Amino acid sequence: MSKSYFITAIHTDSGKTLVSSIFTQALHADYWKPIQAGYPRDTDTVMKFVHNNKSRFHKEAYLLQAPMSPHAAARLEHIEIHLDNILMPRTENTLIVEGAGGILAPISDTQFVIDIAAKFKLEVILVCNIYLGSINHSLLTINELKRRKIKVKGIVFNGPENTETEDIILKHSGYPYLLRVKQEKKITQEVVNRYAIELMSTWSEK
């Protein structure tokens, strides 16, 4: 049975969509963004960067207009997001599921983005981008994942290499290192494929 993975990050604009593209291409997986708030759609971006004959791209459960927190974007449209209405797409393929914002981005007054991963028992891939303060944000996110007993596949670092930052995050998380994505001047299919090949050189689904 194929596995499914939930890609989340330490905050918004951390590189989840690029990392989702890399994993979708590397695993020839399907892709699904359950909640999209704002345009352009992340699904369209991933479709642009992924090039294989196996990946399929599934429709959002909620497609919202405003680029803001899902619960706020939904409220503007007089919609209430219900976790019960978010149903896993039917596929026999590996599935990459991309979250919205960080793990505690609210989807309603009582539920958060990470509740999607918990509902479907998805293994998390955590994107930690590198900046001043990212150690604190990373370890807070990691502590919450552990508190919720969410299984984590590993960490992807996004940004300029900083071994001191990366080492302390890996040490205190206990999670495996999966990949480092550098600051690229331009993202293309070729760039995504290069990282996909790098990922597959060490990838294991155990």
Automatic annotation (TrEMBL):
Cofactor(s) listed: Mg(2+)
InterPro entries from the UniProt entry: DTB_synth_BioD, P-loop_NTPase
Binding site for Mg(2+): 17, 44, 98
EC number from the UniProt entry: 6.3.3.3
A GO CC term assigned to this protein in UniProt: cytosol
One BP annotation, GO: biotin biosynthetic process
Domain of life: Bacteria
Pathway: Cofactor biosynthesis; biotin biosynthesis; biotin from 7,8-diaminononanoate: step 1/2
UniProt: ATP binding residues: 13-18, 44, 98-101
The keyword Magnesium is annotated on this UniProt entry: yes
Residues at the catalytic site: 33
Keywords: ATP-binding, Biotin biosynthesis, Cytoplasm, Ligase, Magnesium, Metal-binding, Nucleotide-binding
One of the record's GO molecular function terms: magnesium ion binding
Pfam families the record matches: AAA_26
Quaternary context: Homodimer.
NCBIfam families documented for this protein: bioD
UniProt function note: Catalyzes a mechanistically unusual reaction, the ATP-dependent insertion of CO2 between the N7 and N8 nitrogen atoms of 7,8-diaminopelargonic acid (DAPA, also called 7,8-diammoniononanoate) to form a ureido ring.
Name recorded for this polypeptide: ATP-dependent dethiobiotin synthetase BioD
Upper taxonomic lineage: Bacteria, Pseudomonadati, Bacteroidota, Cytophagia, Cytophagales
